[in-house]
Amino acid sequence: MIAALSALRSRDIAAYQRLRQQAKKRNPACSVTALDAATRAESPDGGDEPSALDGLVALARTQCQLHRDADRQSVAVIPMPDRREVWRVQSSGFEDWLRAAYWRMKEAGVTDGTMKAALATLSAAGINDGGGIEVHVRAARWQDGYVIDLCDERWQTVEVNPRGWRVVAESPVLFTRTPSMRPLPFPAAGGDIGLLWRHTNIPPNRRVLVLAWLLDGWRPDTPFPVLELVGEQGSAKSTTQTVLRSLIDPNKVMLRGRPKTVEDIFVAAANNWLVSYENLSGLTPEQQDALCTLSTGGGFASRQLYTNGEEHVMETKRPVALNGIAVVATRPDLIDRVIHVDLPTIAPEARRDDADAQAQWERDRPRVFAGLLDLFASALAILPTVEIHRKQRMADFERLGEAVARALGFEAGEFQRQYAELVRAGIDRALESNAVAQALDKYIAERLTPLNWQGTAGQLYDLLGNFGIPDRSTWPRSPKGLADQLRRIAPAYRAKGIDISHLGHGRDGALWRIAQMSSSQHATPPGASSFVGGIRYGEHRG
Known about the structure:
This protein has helices at residues 2-11, 13-26, 32-42, 52-63, 92-106, 112-129, 207-216, 237-245, 262-271, 285-296, 332-335, 354-382, 395-407, 414-432, 435-445, 457-464, 479-495; strands at residues 65-68, 74-79, 84-88, 135-136, 139-142, 145-149, 157-161, 164-168, 174-175, 226-230, 275-277, 298-303, 311-316, 320-324, 338-342, 452-456, 498-506, 509-516, 531-532, 535-536. It is an alpha+beta fold. It starts with a helix and ends in a 6-residue tail after the last strand. It folds into three domains: 2-64 and 93-129, no CATH class; 193-428, Rossmann fold; 434-536. The chain is built from 17 helices and 20 strands. The strands form seven sheets. The chain has a four-stranded antiparallel sheet. Strands 11-14-10-15 form a four-stranded parallel sheet, with helices on both faces. Strands 1-2-3 form a three-stranded antiparallel sheet. The longest helix is centred in the last third of the chain and has 29 residues, at 354-382.
């Protein structure tokens, strides 16, 4: 036997390593170290022991399938008797697996330097020799439904389609993970979505919107709306956000503090499925623009190394959840993507201990998760029949929400009415928080004739500057700054019946026109009013 193994070792070291691993598995008392010494002594050429680097590379190539993804990053697919693991080669998850497999084979460890060299070699092999594959995180589109990664130790997933849902042992698509990801609950029999409201402080008139946001968090093929929870101190904002996140993307750190830079937001998105921030007092305009990019999909580029000129590009699309005492989303383009929920105050006698609340939620979470899956399947069955004639900015979310509402027994059009009300309130917030809009409202309120102003940005800058500006710190410093603000608030005013148009450049500068729209031009969303600051736009006072 030793002679046969020695001959095999000299011809095919990978096959020899597989056999010795099987021997160790069948008989734990077998010393693979002694076996290696015996076969090496019998080798015709003295059997020079391969280096630890060669052993790591040979082991990985024997037990893994190396591929590359669309970003030309190496991915290892590891078939096992009871599961299939998928790791990026340059990840702590794959490194941990490789160290454990090497210990089982050699009963020896490896240095960090050797491991780093082995990972670099395997990464190059996957990029240059492996085939291209598609790798997902947490959720993926599959045929006429979706697949959700449970992130458990058995690498199980849930398939959801219009016909129902089921837990599968081997996913039809490939999922990879990050170290901070935590498992979703195994769905329990008898799902009950109503249990969710015992653990959150969502008012009844916003529950359908929140349910639609939860389900939309599993649809990576459509834009994601941003959930904004706002309430006074002690209104369970963080608790509510934690509970909601635990149904989509449980994480080691469920809530994060305010990001310092735009890059921080994209790094968080690259390592999490759901980007979650709490206790925000405000975000910079650049950070709000970054959240808009995450909502609809985009990327962030920075210099990869200071020693070369290559870029490191992070491209992603993620659901986002925010909370704060004051309104966080103040930019019109972010407000268009926000599901804003005002949390009511909680009476002192209704408060619960955190430990008891957490224990009760962990008991109910499997049933709530199963109820969500039931609702998701029903909504997917109804979705093809939903038609939206007056679409809002997040039209895909609106269609799903209408399907969710009908699946819950609401009349057709109820979700559209609630969403239109939400959009109207968002438009009001966008204008109320904008200094240019405040001045423009005052100008409109003082007019006795129908609005039809035309002139340069400089003339408008001087005109609006005469109306008492409460906060000069946010007032544009030049006519160009005013023009930029007009472009931002134009969609909100258009929804109110006021057209703000750039007419090009004349002899004296950029020309603008601000005028009331005709009834045929102005289509108010169903259920939405046209009031801002006490003025009904589309009419004039006189």
